[in-house]
Design brief:
Number of strands: 11
Structural class: alpha/beta
Shape: globular
CATH class of the largest domain: Alpha Beta
Distance between the termini: 45 Å
Number of domains: 2
CATH architecture of the largest domain: 3-Layer(aba) Sandwich
Mean pLDDT: 89
Strand content: 15-25%
Oligomer: single chain
Strand order of the largest sheet: 2-1-3-10-4-11
CATH topology of the largest domain: D-Maltodextrin-Binding Protein, domain 2
Order of helices and strands: HHEHEHEHEEEHEHEHEEHHHEH
Radius of gyration: 20 Å
Low-confidence stretches: 1-39
Helix content: 25-40%
Largest sheet: 6 strands, mixed
Length: 321
C-alpha cells in the first residue's frame, strides 16, 4: 500500500492545523546534467530501499499541494521499486531551501530562484527535470477593475503601475516577485520609491489574486499558470479583477535532488528517479490527474545553466547575495 505521511517541526504543525481546518530568454535543453548520480544509467531490474523525503515551495494553498504530492508520492512508489515517499510540507519558501541545505529533504520542487539558492547551499545538487511549461514560463500582472490600470502593450508600458499599490507573492518567488520586479525596473519603476506605499508580499499566488480582487491592492503579480487555472475554473469575479499584462518568457520551476541519493537509496537511484519523472506523460494509471495538478502535459530535462539569468537578476534586485 502506498505510504503518505508527514514529519512535523514546530513550523510544520502550522500547516497541519491549516489542512485540518480546510479539509485538507529560450527553450528547454536536452543536455543532461553532468555528474555521477545524474548520468548513471537506470537499471530496470534494480530494487532500492528507504524513504524519500519530498517537498515543495508553498506557492499555493496547502490543501492543493497535499493533493498534488499525495498522487505524486504514489506514482514514484509504483515506479521506483522498494522506495516509500514521505511528503514534508514547509511553512515558507526560505524553509524549503534551509531544509534542503541541512539534508532534511531529499528532493524538492523549487522555483527558479529557490533552486539557485539551494544549489548554492548544496554543491553537487542534481537538477532532475522541469515541466514543459517551465522552459517558457511567464508572470502576469493583474489589476482591480477600478484601479485605472488597463491593458498594457509591452514591458515599457508597465510604467503606468507607478503610483499604484502593488503586491507580489512570496519574497522568494520567481514568477511572483523576482521577474515582475525585474520587468518593472526595465520600465523605469522602482518598487521601493515609485509605488503607492511599499510593495506587499502575499505569500502565495492564490493570495495575490484574493488581495487584488478584494481591493486591498490595486495591482498584483503572480504565476501565469496559477492565474490561468483560476480563469479556467471560472472562480474569478471578472467585474473586480482582470489580467493587464503577461511578461516575456523565462525558465522557472524544477525538481532538485541531493547529490548523494545513490549512496542513501542504492546505486542508480537518481537516474531511476529522473527516469520515472520524465516518463510521467499522462498515459499511465492516474498520471493525467498528476499532470493536471502540476499544470503541465509532461516533464522534460533541464540543466543548471538554464537558471543563470534568474541568478543574475536575483543578485541585481538584492534577493541573492
Amino acid at each position: 500500500m502506498s505510504m503518505f505521511s508527514y514529519r512535523f517541526s514546530s513550523a510544520r504543525r502550522f500547516v497541519a492545523v491549516a489542512l485540518l481546518a480546510t479539509t485538507a530568454v529560450a527553450c528547454g535543453s536536452d543536455t543532461k546534467e553532468k555528474g555521477a548520480d545524474a548520468t548513471t544509467k537506470a537499471d530496470a531490474t534494480a530494487t532500492f530501499h528507504g524513504t524519500l523525503r519530498v517537498s515543495a515551495i508553498p506557492d499555493q494553498e496547502p490543501e492543493k499541494l497535499v493533493r498534488r504530492y499525495q498522487l505524486f508520492a504514489k506514482y514514484i512508489e509504483a515506479h521506483v521499486p522498494g522506495i516509500k515517499v514521505e511528503y514534508v510540507p514547509v511553512i515558507d519558501y526560505p524553509a524549503s531551501v534551509s531544509s534542503f541545505r541541512t539534508g532534511d529533504l531529499d528532493v524538492v520542487w523549487f522555483g527558479g530562484l529557490t533552486g539557485v539558492q539551494a544549489r548554492s547551499a548544496v554543491p553537487g545538487a542534481v537538477t532532475l527535470a522541469q515541466r514543459d511549461i517551465d522552459a517558457k514560463f511567464t508572470s502576469v500582472f493583474v489589476a482591480a477593475s477600478d484601479s485605472g490600470v488597463g491593458p498594457i502593450a509591452d514591458v515599457n508600458g508597465l510604467s503606468v503601475i507607478a503610483g499604484h499599490s502593488l503586491t507580489f507573492g512570496s519574497e522568494s518567488s520567481t514568477s511572483g516577485r523576482v521577474m515582475p520586479q525585474y520587468f518593472l525596473g526595465k520600465a523605469g519603476v522602482d518598487v521601493n520609491t515609485d509605488l503607492k506605499g511599499k510593495p506587499g508580499f502575499s505569500g502565495s499566488h492564490d493570495k495575490t489574486i484574493a488581495l487584488v480582487a478584494a481591493g486591498t491592492f490595486q495591482v498584483g503579480a503572480l504565476s501565469s499558470s496559477v492565474w490561468d487555472k483560476a480563469v479556467a475554473a471560472g472562480t474569478l469575479d471578472k467585474t473586480k479583477i482582470r489580467e493587464v499584462f503577461r511578461t516575456p518568457t523565462f525558465f522557472d520551476y524544477h525538481w532538485l535532488a541531493q547529490p548523494k541519493l545513490d549512496t542513501k537509496f542504492g546505486q542508480g537511484f537518481t537516474a531511476k528517479l529522473r527516469q520515472a519523472i520524465l516518463e510521467l506523460d499522462g498515459n499511465g494509471d492516474g498520471e493525467a490527474a498528476i499532470l493536471e495538478l502540476f499544470g503541465a502535459k509532461r516533464f522534460i530535462e533541464t540543466k543548471p545553466e538554464n537558471y543563470a539569468k534568474i541568478e543574475e537578476i536575483g543578485k541585481t534586485i538584492g534577493v541573492i547575495r
